[in-house]
């Protein structure tokens, strides 16, 4: 007996198309840069018409906003896992490997740097990135607080600084991977893990 075909709801089809556009746009931004990547080139990469693209996004800024939202959602899933871990510091150490791999992924780095470059020129994009950073930064401080259970409480400024340092470690590794593609990740990972523990627990 043949399995009964189930119609995919229109909202699911629409979301799939939307994600298809985001993936195509991310590729175009990485390869050509934000300004050189036209809506026509994004449409071609997505395998649809330009008019179809505008059905989902008003302009390239709207696409960037959606890419930022998607990355924020990914990071919030990690944050949720860390905040609900039985041993937060152990979970942080374990997750450092995944964070390092993401930081050293040149395709991720290229897209992130392209959006940062655009943010330096475009106040709207800058506000998008800053708004996302504010959300993730606050949760990052919660993780540090939870990982320091049993230790003296930190001042707000100290917690801010430690959170910024950890974020800067991973951002800096992204840049370093471009200038030095031969990074010894096997040596870097344990050093990174020790540094995170020192920042959080000292």
From TrEMBL:
UniProt-recorded Gene Ontology molecular function terms: DNA-binding transcription factor activity; transcription cis-regulatory region binding
Superkingdom to which the source organism belongs: Bacteria
Keyword DNA-binding belongs to the record: yes
Keywords: DNA-binding
InterPro entries: Homeodomain-like_sf, HTH-type_TetR-like_transc_reg, HTH_TetR, Tet_transcr_reg_TetR-rel_C_sf, TetR_C_31
Cross-referenced PROSITE patterns: HTH_TETR_2 (PS50977)
Domain HTH tetR-type: 15-75
Keyword DNA-binding assigned: yes
DNA-binding region residue numbers: 38-57
Descriptive protein name: TetR/AcrR family transcriptional regulator
Organism: Chitinibacter fontanus
